[in-house]
Design brief:
Helix content is about 70%, strand content about 10%. With about 120 residues, the chain is mainly α. The longest helix is centred in the middle third of the chain and has 37 residues.
Length: about 120
């Protein structure tokens, strides 16, 4: 299972446990409240772990892209015809600033990374 999907399922479980915890607190059921507090704590810990794994993964990808020989921002015309650009440049990787990888790398504009000048 990939990290994004696992993170989504854990967030769903956390939401479900929090709702059940609130219902148990409203009923005044101490044993169930204690059980769901433990469940919430374990799921929260696992979510933090997964987010750390994602950060490391994006950091490694960013380092690999920065190691490529050439990078430059893409013009609006190049962005409009990405198919033509990808065909003309071998090994081109385009990073958008609003993606997780783009935010991790600190990119402000759409940037292309390639092993050779383009």
């Amino acid at each position: 299972m990939n990290l994004k999907l696992e993170l989504q399922t854990l967030n769903d479980k956390l939401d479900k446990f929090r709702r059940k915890l609130a219902a148990a607190e409203a009923r005044g059921d101490a044993a169930i409240v204690l059980q769901f507090k433990k469940e919430v704590a374990t799921v929260t810990k696992r979510i933090a772990s997964i987010k750390g794994q994602q950060t490391r993964q994006f950091s490694q990808e960013g380092t690999a892209l920065k190691a490529l020989g050439f990078k430059r921002t893409l013009t609006k015309a190049e962005q409009a015809d990405m198919g033509k650009l990808n065909k003309s440049v071998k090994g081109l990787v385009v990073v958008h600033p609003l993606t997780a990888l783009g935010r991790e790398m600190g990119i402000k504009e759409v940037t292309g990374f390639a092993p050779a000048k383009f």
